[in-house]
Amino acid sequence: MMVHTMHRESPDKGLDSGKYVRYTPEQVEALERVYTECPKPSSLRRQQLIRECPILSNIEPKQIKVWFQNRRCREKQRKEAARLQTVNRKLNAMNKLLMEENDRLQKQVSHLVYENGHMKHQIHTASGTTTDNSCESVVVASGQQHQQQNPNPQHLQRDANNPAGLHSIAEEALAEFLSKATGTAVDWVQMIGMKPGPDSIGIVAISRNCSGIAARACGLVSLEPMKVAEIVKDRPSWLRDCRSVDTLSVIPAGNGGTIELIYTQMYAPTTLAAARDFWTLRYTTCLEDGSYVVCERSLSAATGGPTGPPSSNFVRAEMRPSGFLIRPCDGGGSILHIVDHVDLDALSVPEVMRPLYESSKILAQKMTVAALRHVRQIAQETSGEVQYGGGRQPAVLRTFSQRLSRGFNDAVNGFVDDGWSPMGSDGAEDITLMINLSPGKFGGNSFLPSFGSGVLCAKASMLLQNVPPAVLVRFLREHRSEWADYGVDAYAAASLRASPFAVPCARAGGFPSNQVILPLAQTVEHEEFLEVVRLEGHAYSPEDMGLARDMYLLQLCSGVDEDVVGGCAQLVFAPIDESFADDAPLLPSGFRVIPLEPKSTPNGASVNRTLDLASALEGSTRQGGEADPNGCNFRSVLTIAFQFTFDNHTRDNVASMARQYVRNIVGSIQRVALAIAPRPGSSICPISAPTSPEALTLVRWISRSYRVHTGVDLFGSDSQTSGDTLLHQLWSHTDAILCCSMKTNASPVFTFANQTGLDMLETTLLALQDITLDNTLDEPGRKALCSEFPKIMQQGYAHLPAGVCASSMWRLVSYEQATVWKVLEDDESNHCLAFMFVNWSFV
């Protein structure tokens, strides 16, 4: 390789500055070795290179610098060219997909136009003539009766001993699946928020006016079709709700394909519904154009085929022809078409829960999009595009996520064959307790040292009103002090040590610790992330020495994007020790929030935000399921499950502690829901203002200081009003008013806020002191405050220009103006700074 570089020599060397220096292959090789180690060497490193390599002694340091600049430029151009080629290939494939989609839609339009004309003709004929069709009716009725007596004669020959019959079922399933994947067999409607593009997940659609619920997706993946088929057939690896897949029979088919008889068990998403199972035939084959197909459908008396295993603890659901069409893509990779079409027997669950089983949007997010995302994730991991820290392999981190989700699902469902059995209640039905005396099921390749007799699980479900699932889960993740008890966490972590921690008493708000979140990994679409949470411990008395050491949680958080339609939000965590081995035992606990379809109901509804879901199921008049007076009711189901270890002598104490702890958490979530639910246009009662003497005094100081500094009354004429009236006026003020400490040795934190201020920061009074001023104001806002700070201290107040700040959920908030003033105590000493954000709104 020969490289030419412009070289400007000094006059005494007699060389023309416009000529090129020609590097020898040996010189280029030496420079390339250094470039591999350090693409941007410092001046000292370049001089050292000249001293250590005699073959570079005739090259000036400045010229060496130019060579490295050119080399970096060529590398950047090469990477950009490769990126553009990849984008171009994706765009070409996406264009092909869109053209096919356009053709399908045109066919669908033509079909609808034909049906519309045919119906018009029938209406016109029926209105113009009256014909006696009694004879035809008799013939039709006779034919229908014959069909009912023998609905499908050829299906009677399809059994386990007749491979030809099973092959006939498989071919029918294949034809019907292809008509859904690329044809007009189902009326597909594009899902909101799923726009096609080179970097998007793909084209996602849901069914309309369809028997059962169905979803379809197609997208590009950089894997070969055979590899994609292998991935999607491993359903438990990408479908978190899949408990098990058992292949009971395999029959060879033509074109190197196979016919499999599959029994699949699914988890129930919440505690108040039975789990589902499927008995299906799965057909894998290769088409003439080189495409792979993996299609599947349920076997029943109507379709023929062998009878599936009995399902005493499951509700048998039906899978209509569904599957995967994997087509090779020009230039490498595949185009993946996915169709999911199921009937989950929604009538078998309580009415309040039926939207979970009747929503094509939820099906699309939980199954269809999940499969496509999983394949894309593995494709990017294979190509090296995804980098993870901590020295962990992507497959290991995926296994941790699967184990957390699976352990939580096991706790929620409590299957008998896993060893779970119910435990007696204390008279109330709000909390369900179950015990498992088979602790070996919970470890990785090792047992928990302190498992003793077994594991106890406390779980409950709630119906939330007007609380976005993503916002609630983000709040639970970022403000653990709102609901967690550090003593209970310490007891849960003690199961990892040889000497167990004493069973604590569950305390509301007993969390004397800070949490530090350390990210481990996140999926390509950022819809799920795995992290380690360090809980910093403190001991306040000798009996609390168990609280003095730091604890660690492995945590899985998903569904925190508010723009996702039909997405489930989840926060699951399990205690781990400092070693955090790949086979570390996990005992997961956590929360799951699943949205229900919005439902319009008559006016005059209940104003409760959160209800015990069990009470909503008792009668036919469910106040919890009714809408607010605005006519729109956004509901979601929250499921809570916490697991604890116990010994024989501590079982009753652990049960009492777990029951009270979950009740405390339910109460905390009810308070949190009141704080974070959207308020504009809502008639739901606001949080009551604090009425302590300190609050009344602070409000008086805030009002008096504002009047002294600005000469204007904050609430109009308030010189004769009482403290309670001032507090009410401040609490219900339309602008956000917040008080901030005036610390010189630490970052200022908020100490008080009115109702509007809490709404703006998306927090509660209890969690307000965790929010710092630096994290709330953006950089221009901080600079404006610093520049006006001397004026504030001298004059007493200042006006800040319009700007942007951030809530505790990291949502951007814009405001037209902010007024800052000193709050003075009765002795005229400085107490804090008060902020008033005028005309704020979420961006």
From TrEMBL:
It is found in: Nucleus. One of its GO terms (biological process) is cell differentiation. Residues 74-108 form a coiled coil. One of its GO terms (molecular function) is DNA binding. Residues 16-79 bind DNA. This is Homeobox domain-containing protein. InterPro entries: HD, HD-Zip_III, Homeodomain-like_sf, MEKHLA, START-like_dom_sf, START_lipid-bd_dom. It holds the Pfam family START. Residues 144-155 have a biased composition (Low complexity). Residues 14-78 form the Homeobox domain. Belongs to the HD-ZIP homeobox family. Class III subfamily. The keyword Transcription regulation applies. One of its GO terms (cellular component) is nucleus. Keywords: Coiled coil, Differentiation, DNA-binding, Homeobox, Nucleus, Transcription, Transcription regulation. Residues 159-387 form the START domain.
